[in-house]
Amino acid sequence: MGSYLAELSLLDYSCLRFLPSVVAASSLFLARLTIGPDTNPWGKEMHKLTGYKASELKDCIIAIHDLQLNRKGQSLPAIRDKYKQHRFKCVSMLLPPVEIPASYFQDLTE
């Protein structure tokens, strides 16, 4: 799932402004959100492991989320088709939440 989301970002010009580590962390956030939409995907442990707070990733998360929802990036069918294959666990067919709760971007207190 994370690879799929990161690969979507590679072909979108607006994502070039983000550091690769930000794209990777944002892809992980969205992968965790897609798999478990009722649970905050970014806790203290993820902050500790990546060095990023959810609020620092917000712009990149929203950009990749728009690609995931097909709000932009209509010219990316090859990536979507690739990740529909069984060997990639059909992750491009998983439906992400339409909206990301604002509370998921609030920084957790230590």
UniProtKB/TrEMBL annotation:
Cyclin C-terminal domain span: 1-97
Cyclin-like domain mapped to chain residues: 1-66
SUPFAM superfamilies for the chain: Cyclin-like
Entry keyword annotation includes Magnesium: no
A Pfam family that the UniProt record links to this protein: Cyclin_C
Keyword annotations of the record: Cell cycle, Cell division, Cyclin
Source species of the chain: Aegilops tauschii subsp. strangulata
InterPro entries per the UniProt record, alphabetical: Cyclin-like_dom (IPR013763), Cyclin-like_sf (IPR036915), Cyclin_C-dom (IPR004367)
Name of the molecule in the record: Cyclin C-terminal domain-containing protein
